[in-house]
Amino acid sequence: MSKRRIFVSSVQKELDNERQAVLALVSTDLFLQNHFETVLYELEPAAPEKGWHGCLATLDTCDIYLIILWKEYGHLEGTLSLTHQEYSHAKRKGMPILVYIKGPAELKREDKTTRFLQEIQKDGFKYKRFGNFLELQREVRASLLRLLKREYGVEPSSDENEIAEQTIKATSDFENQTLTRLRWDDVNHEVAQKLVAAAEQKPIKELSHEDILRNLIIRGLLWVDTETRDHYMTAAGIVLLSFDPSAVFPHCRFLADAYSGTVPDGAPNDQEDIRAPLPFVIERVISFIDRNTRHPVRVVGLNRIRLDEYPIEALREALVNAGVHRDYEDRSRRIMVEKFSDRIVISSPGLPPPPLTLPKLRAGKYKPCSRNPILAQCLSFFHRIEERGSGFRRMREQMLNHGLDQPRLATDSGYFQVILPGPGEDLNRLRIPAGVAGQIVPPSVEQQLNDRQKKIIGQVLQEGFVTSGWCRKQFRVTYDTANRDLGELSILNILERKGKGRSTKYVLRVRK
C-alpha cells in the first residue's frame, strides 16, 4: 500500500505550531510514518499555477483533507478564504475530511469563522475539539487509525499503540516552536547536509539545495513564512543545527568538569562550557572525557592496544539520552557532566516523563517514549541512538563487556542522572575489546551461562569440539539437560552444531 497523502489546511500564521505538531506526529510515529505523508502547501515546490489555483492543484494530489480552525477566517480569495475554498474543493471531490477545532464552543471567533463552522456542522462532518497541540496529536492519530482500519484493514500492534500514546503524553511543545530568531542562512549547513544524507541514505553530492530544505521542513527543523518566503529554524532545528544554540536558548549547553577526587572540590582539574550543534556537543564531551581519563596499554601478540577507562559507546549513549530527553522547558539549568576518580556522572534537567519511573527504567520494563521525539529521530539518523528504547540495556552490556559495573540510574534535585562506575585503582579490570584478542564470550553473555556451559566452552577451546555424550558423562546429567545446555550455547551464537545422529559435534561458531 502506497502512503496516503494528508493535506493540512488552516490559517497558517495563526496555527503554525499546530501544523508543525501534525507534521511531527506523522513523521515520528513509528506506525503512521509507514502509511501517511503530510502535505503542507508552503513546503511544496514552486508551481506554474498562481495563488489559490496552485493550492487546489496540490490538494488534488492528496488522499485526505485535514482542517484545523481557531479564531481567524483568513485572507479572502474572492468571496471566500483560501481555507474555505480548500474545504469546498475537498468536499466536491468526496475526499475523507477530518476537522479539528481549537478551543471551546463559547470562544469568541471572527463572524466568518463562526459561519464557516456552522457550514461544516450542517454538512454533517464530525469534528473534534482540542486545547493544545498534545490533544491535537492524540485526536489526529485516533482519526487516522480509524481510517486505516476502515478502508484497508490495517491496525498497529499493541506495542506501537503503547509507544505512541506514551510519547504523546511525554512530549514537550518546546521542539515545535516556530521562531523567527534564526534563518536558514544562519545555521551550520554541514550538519544539515549530513543529517539529510543519513536520513535519505544518499550521498551528500546527490542532494540538491531544495532537497535539503524540504527534508528539514518535513523533519520539523525548518519552517517557511508564506508571506516573505523566508526559511526559519524551529526550536528543534536551532538545537540540532545552529552554530551556538545557547545564543537563542542559554540553557542549551553542556558543562563538563573533571575532578581528581570522588567529590566536587571547587577546583576542577579541567572544565569546559560546550556550545555547539547537539551532534558536535556529544563528540566534544567525549573528547573532554578522553583527555581526563586513563588509557592503559596492553600487549596482545605483536600489538600494543590502548584501552579506554570507560567504553566510548556507553558514554555516547548516555550523552545522547541526556540531550534528547532533557526537559527543555526548564531554562534555568544545563546538562552537567562530572568526571570523578571513580565514576562519571551525567545529569540532565527533568525527571523521567510519565509513565516512565525510575524503578521501571532500572528494571528495563518499559516501553520507549521521548520528551523530544524530533530530536530523538534526527539523532538516530546520525547512527548515535536507536529510537526503540534499548539505550539503557545497551549501556549495561557495554559497561559489563568493558569489565566495569553496570550503570546506575538516579535522580537528584530535579536532575535525572546516569552514573558510570569506573575501575578505580584496579585498571586490570578493563577488558580488551571483543575481537581484538579473540574474545569468545562477552561478559554480558557470560553472565547468562551456568557453570556447566562455561566448562563446555573450555572443552571446545581445548579439544576443538564437544559432544552431548561427553557432557552427560562429565556432569552426570540426563540427555535432555545436556542437549539444553548445548542448544542454549547455539542460540547465543557461541557454538555451532555439526553432523547428525551419533556423529553430532559442537564446535565454535565462525564469526564473520
CATH topology of the largest domain: Heat Shock Protein 90
Reported for the largest beta sheet, the result is: 6 strands, mixed
Tally the beta strands: 20
What count of domains describes the coordinates? 3
Total of helices? 18
Bulk shape: globular
Structural class: alpha/beta
**Estimated radius of gyration:** 28 Å
Helix content: 25-40%
Give me the CATH architecture of the largest domain, please.
2-Layer Sandwich
What percentage of the residues does DSSP assign to strands (E)? Answer: 15-25%
**Order of strands, widest sheet:** 12-11-15-16-18-17
Parts with pLDDT < 50 across at least 5 consecutive residues:
none
Mean pLDDT: 87
Structure description:
- There is one protein chain.
- This protein has 512 residues and is of the alpha/beta class.
- It has three domains: 4-156, Rossmann fold (3-Layer(aba) Sandwich); 174-437, Heat Shock Protein 90 (2-Layer Sandwich), CATH 3.30.565.60; 448-508, Winged helix-like DNA-binding domain superfamily/Winged helix DNA-binding domain (Arc Repressor Mutant, subunit A, Orthogonal Bundle).
- It contains 18 helices and 20 strands.
- The chain has helices at 16-28, 52-59, 82-93, 111-122, 133-152, 158-170, 189-200, 209-218, 235-241, 278-291, 312-325, 358-363, 373-380, 391-401, 443-446, 451-463, 468-475, 479-491; strands at residues 4-9, 36-39, 64-69, 76-77, 80-81, 97-102, 127-130, 178-183, 222-224, 231-234, 254-258, 270-274, 297-300, 303-306, 335-339, 343-349, 408-412, 415-421, 495-498, 505-508.
- The strands form six sheets. Strands 12-11-15-16-18-17 form a six-stranded mixed β-sheet. The protein has a five-stranded parallel β-sheet with strand order 2-1-3-6-7, with helices on both faces. It has a three-stranded antiparallel β-sheet with strand order 8-10-9.
- Helix 4 links the parallel strand 6 (97-102) and strand 7.
- Helix 2 (52-59) runs parallel beside helix 3 and helix 11 runs antiparallel to helix 14 (391-401).
- The longest helix has 20 residues, at 133-152.
